Amino acid sequence: MNTSEHYTYLDHSATTPVDPQVVEAMAPYWSDIFGNSESSHIPGQAAASALEQARQTVADVLGCRPAEIIFTGSGTEADNLALRGAAWAARQSGRGNHIVTTPIEHNAVGHTVGQLRDLFGFEVTRVPVDEHGSVDPDDVAAAIRPDTIVVSIMMANNEVGTVQPMVGLGRICRERGVLFHTDAVQAAGRLPLEPGDMNVDLMALSAHKFYGPKGVGLLYVRRDTSLVPAITGGGHERGRRPGTVNVAGAVGLATALRLAEEKRVTEAARLRRLRDRLIEGVLSSITESRLTGHPQHRLPHHASFAFRGIEGESVVLNLDLEGIGVSSGAACTEGEPEPSFVLAAMGIPPEWSLGSLRVTLGHANDESDVERVLEVLPPIVERLRACRPTCQ
Ligand SMILES: Cc1ncc(COP(=O)(O)O)c(C=O)c1O
């Protein structure tokens, strides 16, 4: 299906289409410049040179050194490498055993930290969030112990769009001599990303969230940060991420990040206007509706709602029938709707959180898309409420 012609895609926090300029930049690296970047012959050198150019482009955007960038196979892998790598390095040197995080992290972080606790004996403190999904830096300061090795807090939440007070959090970690890891997968292309400004030591990105290809991510690792590789194999990426490097993917990621940064300020301002119109329109036309996440400190393209007494997944399916693609935070487990753990951690009761809806805007969207949602969404919610519980 060609989604661009008859379909209004409003799920850009799930993934984005690849920018045609990115496709073009990647094209030579499939069959023309196809060498293994580790080979010493001419085709290998050509691939290695493209890879190092991509690393330089990323470093220019992030304001860091090229050697501080490790290409990975996804944002999930970058988060795994950061946390396992830092935890195992601390274990090796006997430096500590305690991890601080939050209850609203993406599973790439939440499940990794859970496994480090359950299988490897690390202790974990999850600092609570408030009703907007914000972390208080004072709570993080209070949670840090002499044996804390890493604090892992996402820059922006995927489900509710809340942006965390990164500068304050980074300052505390630096003062206390603890590594600061952030999952910036949702923030890339939408917020300033320089790790040096935020005292971030480890930062994960994923290309498919900013109009790059799927299956390629990166981990920024501040110089002199000890990491044990999360997977074992060859000496690629300075021995920190074994596996023949996806050169086309790295070129795609770097091109997409550069383009995203070039457009970031103007595009964020444009999307913020659309987002605010959407939020105002939904809240004023649908009774028992609320915004989830922070009203101000939120991603510019991100609107998320809860509607009392209905199921978000039913709204998603009904909007899909109208040719509009959005998502819901609630999951269905064995036929039973499950409230989102993010909204639960924010103290939102299940009769609201089951009816969660996320609308995330992107380059191709304009006022007409927002007006279309505002036209079709209120009658869908009304209909679902009227026929509850039989038709949900
Ligand atoms: C906040 C966050 N972290 C990590 C990921 C995982 O990234 P990837 O899809 O590249 O594995 C996602 C993807 O949705 C995300 O939203």
Compute the gyration radius: what is it?
A: 22 Å
The total beta strand count reads 14
Question: Which quaternary structure do these chains form?
Answer: single chain
Helicity, in percent? 40-55%
Present the secondary structure layout:
Blueprint: H1 3-6, E1 8-9, H2 20-26, H3 28-31, H4 42-62, E2 69-72, H5 75-93, E3 98-101, H6 107-120, E4 123-126, H7 137-143, E5 148-152, H8 166-176, E6 179-183, H9 195-198, E7 202-206, E8 217-221, H10 247-285, E9 289-291, E10 302-307, H11 312-321, E11 324-325, E12 331-333, E13 336-338, H12 341-345, H13 350-353, E14 356-360, H14 367-386
Parallel strand pairs: 1-11, 3-4, 3-5, 5-6, 6-7
Antiparallel strand pairs: 2-8, 7-8, 9-10, 10-14, 12-13
Commentary on this structure:
This protein is of the alpha/beta class and 392 residues long. The chain is 43% helix and 14% strand. It is built from 14 helices and 14 strands. The protein has helices spanning 3-6, 20-26, 28-31, 42-62, 75-93, 107-120, 137-143, 166-176, 195-198, 247-285, 312-321, 341-345, 350-353, 367-386; strands at residues 8-9, 69-72, 98-101, 123-126, 148-152, 179-183, 202-206, 217-221, 289-291, 302-307, 324-325, 331-333, 336-338, 356-360. The strands form four sheets. The chain has a seven-stranded mixed sheet, with helices on both faces. A three-stranded antiparallel sheet has the order 9-10-14.
